[in-house]
Amino acid sequence: MNAVLRHRLLWPAVILAALLLTNLAFTDHFFSIEMKDGHLYGSLIDIVRFGAPLILVALGMTLVIATGGIDLSVGSVVSISGALACLRISGMDDQNSVSGVVAAAGLALVLSLALGAWNGFLVAGVGIQPIIATLILMVAGRGLAQLITDGQIITVNSGPYKLIGGGYWLTLPFGIIIVLAVLALTAVLTRRLALGLLIESVGGNAEASRLAGIRSRGVIITVYTFAALCAGVAGLMISSNVSSADGNNAGLWIELDAILAVVIGGTSLAGGRFSLGGTVLGALIIQTLTTTIYSIGVPPETTLLFKALVVTVVCLLQSPAFREKAFHRRRRPVAAPPAAEEKVRVPA
Amino acid sequence: MFKRISALLLAGAVTMTMAGCGGDGGSGGSADDGKITMGFSQVGAESGWRTANTKSVQDSAKSAGVDLKFSDAQQKQENQIKAIRSYIQQKVDVIAFSPVVESGWDTVLKEAQSAKIPVILTDRAVDSADTSLYKTFLGSDFVEEGRKAGTWLTEAFKDSKDPVNIVELQGTTGSAPANDRKAGFAEVIGADPKFKVIASQTGDFTRAKGKEVMEAFLKANPDIDVLYAHNDDMGLGAIEAIEGAGKVPGKDIKIITIDAVKDGMQALADGKISYIVECSPLLGPQLMDLAKKAVKGEQIPARVVTEETTFTQEQAKEALPSRQY
């Protein structure tokens, strides 16, 4: 029991459950999942499906934040990747050719990788502060996406491309399958191999890690490249979901949602530790909150205020210091507060 | 570097116009063949609608024999003010622009006034208290667009006795088109209590949001009869959501949108959208007409509404091949 109470992911999980139950109170069939046209259909499926791009972007962001950095450019990468793929596909003679779609998606992902490597180079190679280095691409990237789309919305009509973000496979939305695959891969790479430890040690103290024989520069470039790759895949999903690329609006402000998801999930912005499961929960909370606003009918003028209130409550509940103050007197056996969230310094 | 080059070019342009002006100094009094110089400052190139708007102005300037000086403000007011000042220095005959934002124009408009250059606003308004600062405002009437959408709806359901459940996808919260289209629509359908807006949320004028919000609407409200979307793109996103829910857009759920861009017209011709109210970017010919009158010193109305129409599914099939944007 104590172990459960003390678990880091307890509070995000409680909040997610509370949000879902709120929905149930307003919409009777909120939890029902049925089969429709050979695939699963229901509000819960929607939450995961629309949340899929955010989960991906947030996964990449988690690793970047774990190294003590931050990546503001992911939203721009989302729009660039979708724009490039749609541009290639719209120029094909047969938009339904699978090889053509794979080539277009591949090209978009290669460009995303290059953009990520550029971020990594600026941060680790040149030594620019991450927030500034990635701000460059955040601002310029949307211009690049506009340039690719020529300021227009590119509409494509391609069955195979539609599958990525709007299609189904084995009754599940294809986007969810992609997310599960990326999540599994990331978990194995960081938690079964030493990579996770290396990332955390670079986040704890880059210089000390270097002295200990870790190539921090390589690690940093890797995480930024990975974050951009995740954003690239998310960009394909978002544009595929509506079969069109909108350079102006695709992935707008997704970087902020992703950072919020990471923080709600209990990863410290100071770097040095991270939680992939927490990030996934955080992203799901954000998407559930959005869905809740639509289904209980919060007026658009007050949507942002409503979101802000919920997020404030979430963050307060997440803070051990606040919980200590608020709940200390009432409970008799005080559950020991989880380890403080301050930066974990790795001794040199 | 780029700045220096553009400054050089600008200087060149100024001297050339001066030379040009010297040639036809008495253009004000001459007949229609007298060449008018117009300075036009565009907001930017953020959407297909805007691009069509730019093209319309450029094309109709050419065919009306107006010498057009065009500049793109890239969504920045300071660029626009700079452009207008340079037009004043170049002594153009008339200045037209689509203001990026509503406020902060008084100073530069006064400069134009004291240089005796008439100013025409296109597409978007300014909030200056002194309306003598500009000759006229040419643009769409968003409230009227909302009313047109509402009127079609009341016509289409006039024989129905049952309540009509409407969901609304609003534009970006707080923007003029969103506020006005909502108000105009509500005004018309408010006359009959059987029309009920059961859910109304913002879809930010984008396809992705339109789809996401519509998915949630469909889950929360099993009986939706009508969707009213403030632009085509949100409607197009919602169509995908409706199809995903196993319903037939245009049949099970009637869809009304505003704008009439090409993708929207295609969906209308395919029977997925039921009715589109046009919000036309093609105001070039009207602008040139007004500009000529303004230069001659003729009286022109302070508010000119863009010539716009509406499209049913049949009309869309006819209009689609010649749709420019």
From TrEMBL, chain A:
Keyword list, A-Z: Cell membrane, Membrane, Transmembrane, Transmembrane helix
Keyword Cell membrane part of the UniProt annotation: yes
Transmembrane regions: 43-65, 97-118, 130-148, 168-189, 219-238, 250-269, 276-298, 304-322
InterPro entries named in the record: ABC_transp_permease
CDD domains, A to Z: TM_PBP1_transp_AraH_like
Membrane topology listed for this record: Multi-pass membrane protein
One cellular-component annotation, GO: plasma membrane
Main location: membrane
GO terms assigned for molecular function: transmembrane transporter activity
Top-rank taxon: Bacteria
UniProt keyword annotation of Cell membrane present: yes
Protein name: Sugar ABC transporter permease
Organism annotation: Streptosporangium minutum
UniProtKB/TrEMBL annotation, chain B:
Compartment(s) where it occurs, according to its Swiss-Prot or TrEMBL record: Cell envelope
Signal peptide positions on this chain: 1-19
SUPFAM superfamilies according to UniProt: Periplasmic binding protein-like I
Pfam families xrefs: Peripla_BP_4
A Gene Ontology molecular function term of the record: carbohydrate binding
The keyword Signal is annotated on this UniProt entry: yes
Keywords of the record: Signal
Start and end residues of each Periplasmic binding protein domain: 40-299
UniProt cross-references to PROSITE patterns, sorted A to Z: PROKAR_LIPOPROTEIN
GO cellular-component term (any): cell envelope
Subcellular location, principal: other
UniProt similarity note: Belongs to the bacterial solute-binding protein 2 family.
InterPro entries: Peripla_BP_I, SBP_2_dom
Organism phylogeny: Bacteria, Bacillati, Actinomycetota, Actinomycetes, Streptosporangiales
Keyword Signal listed: yes
The protein's name: LacI family transcriptional regulator
